[in-house]
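User: I'll paste a sequence; please echo it back and then give the predicted structure.

Assistant: Echoing your sequence first, then the prediction.
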Amino acid sequence: MRELSSCSYRSLTHALRSISRKYNIPISTLKTNARILKELGIIEVSEGKPVKLTQAGQIITEIVNTRYNNGLNLDSRILSELSEKADLVRRYVLRMVAEAGAGHIGASLSVVDILVTLYLCKMRYDVRNPNWSLRDRLILSKGHAAPALYAVLSLVGFLPEDELWRFRDIESVLQGHPEMDIPGVDIVSGSLGQGLSIGCGMALALKRDGIPAKVYVIVGDGELDEGQVWEAALTASKLGLDNLVLIVDRNSYQQEGPTEHVKPLEPLAMKWIMFGWYVVEVDGHDFKQLLEALNEVDNVGKPSVIIAHTVKGKGFPPAEGNNVYHSRPVSKDELRSFGVL
């Protein structure tokens, strides 16, 4: 909807192809969205005429996507540094999984840029005092992406780098899912669907204690099949938890295959709007878009969700968009062949 309000497309096909290329969203998903938006009277589609928003569509777009002036100024040098850090994290993830002979590289690699943006640009924490009461909280509800979280925690100083290479070792603190005895980890996670409920509890406690901290919850899109997520969504809206930010890693795959084949989620943004949430959609590999969205949701007066469109397995060519690598480990020889080690 934001694209249609800001760009001129000569036809619906032109619009869908352009948006698909820009945000890495499958054409099939966009077609479903377009059909629903047309039925709801939000867009106008006429033969031989440009596709455009109706008056109702313009109003909804203005409500959902109002941009605040955050004074954001990410120059090319900073963007380059963030990209370099994300590349390093991806190498860490791949080596960890190769050393362990187990792990979920697809889900880990898709969430890297989100975690790097949060920890390097947004979240408030103290590596010398992991339990600092004023810290922002992070819940990685998609706990199988733990390698990405561990790599970022090491990058910012919570964990020594050497510990990463003991991933899943029985004597190591770094197991297949995050646990609370790991410095910088706020909650045990791994049983999908529970993270947002926990986030509601944390956000409510912070508000009642008068602590000005945020709770960030990262979920996978396949995880949205869980009914508990939507129960928590209603709770957050009812309680006005404006210190709660949900980030959906929208890589369009889950263990059984494409999300839209298993249990279609679209129109996903509209669902969250109807549940009373503030919604922003971004390219989940664009640091500027991610930070703009994180800044935008700071003062909207309601719980917020950032739908971050990502590529599963991002950064490792054989795994990009390839669900075979959902939980398939990689060998050191395979990494060397692609210049990772």
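The chain has two domains: 2-64, 76-335. The first strand starts at residue 43 and ends at 44.
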